[in-house]
Amino acid sequence: GGERWMHKNRFTMADIERLRTRVVLREDRVENTASTAFPGTYPGIDDSWSFDAFQKTFHIDVIKNEGLEMEFDFVGADASIANTFRRIMIAEVPTIAVETCQIYNNTSLIPDETLAHRLGLVPINADPRSFDFRKGDVATAVDTLVFTLAVTCQKNPKAGKDAPESERYINANVYSRHFEWVPQGDQKDQYPDGIRPVHEDILLAKLRPGQEINIELHCVKGIGKDHAKFSPVATASYRLLPEIILKKPIIGADAHLLKSCFSPGVIEVRRNAQGVEEARVANARGDTMSREVFRHKHLAEAVDLQRVRDHFIFSIESTGALSAADIFRESIHVLMGKCDLLLAELTATTSAMKE
Prior knowledge:
By secondary structure, this protein is of the alpha+beta class. The protein has helices spanning 2-8, 13-21, 51-57, 79-91, 112-120, 165-168, 187-190, 252-260, 297-300, 324-354, and strands at residues 22-25, 30-31, 59-65, 69-75, 95-106, 145-152, 154-155, 169-170, 173-175, 180-181, 203-206, 212-222, 233-246, 267-271, 277-281, 303-318. Strands 1, 2, 3, 4, 13 and 16 form a 6-stranded antiparallel beta sheet that branches. A 4-stranded antiparallel beta sheet has the order 5-12-6-10, covered by helices on one side. The protein has a two-stranded antiparallel sheet with strand order 7-8. Strand 14 and strand 15 form a beta hairpin.
């Protein structure tokens, strides 16, 4: 039956495999964007989901892990699973951030609400796994961090009239390093090295002599779903692995023209066995798939651009409270918790129906 269907529709096995596993880029459109790997889609091909098959094909390859930045390949899963991790990392992995500001004095040019918003976006270098979510209005040492921000600007008596602005004033710029941690309960024993903002050089406000900022900051644990200030990532994204296929040799001036159509390092030009300069794909992974090559008709006919449907290149950049690897690990724990909750609900519903 499968062979008759393919013959009738003039499909080869290679065509079917391309439909199932590749997203194809054309000059004016993108084809095969929707996954078709479902049972019964293609006669003679068993696309039913199997845990054993999933175990054999799924893998994660870490390409770069530099603390706050991480890149890894997430291979062998559906886009829905990849997107689940992306959304959890952005919105459901908790961090610590400024929640309330008790402003005792603010004579700077920045309005109170604007300054409070800026303070809320300062990443705090505290492990959220060591704290509880705030319950109720009473703050405790296990759910709240307290900082003070007290800065007064004044003239520098030692600076001459012709001194640069940076020397004429003391505390003209208010930075995140001016945060002073006020330990609560036994926090000083638990965190002997202290707790500070992730970055010491975040500019919060500018002052001039006589102006003052005096604020008490209360930080709590939260998730990005409630407010973006709690999101642990500056960016968490993925893209499909690019694939560039040269359907025929491209030599001479055309080889250099082809090279210029792609990102640096994607195409290289080398002399072949006959001593002629010929283009070859050096690093398709580095391409942005701009489709610039389609501007040249004679090159467009010699090149296929596509992406591997189940090969996701993940990029994570942490704001600093957790390492990028820890953020991904925490997203796995969050997803496991969701699955446990779903299974518990299904079990309870099934039990209720039997009764």
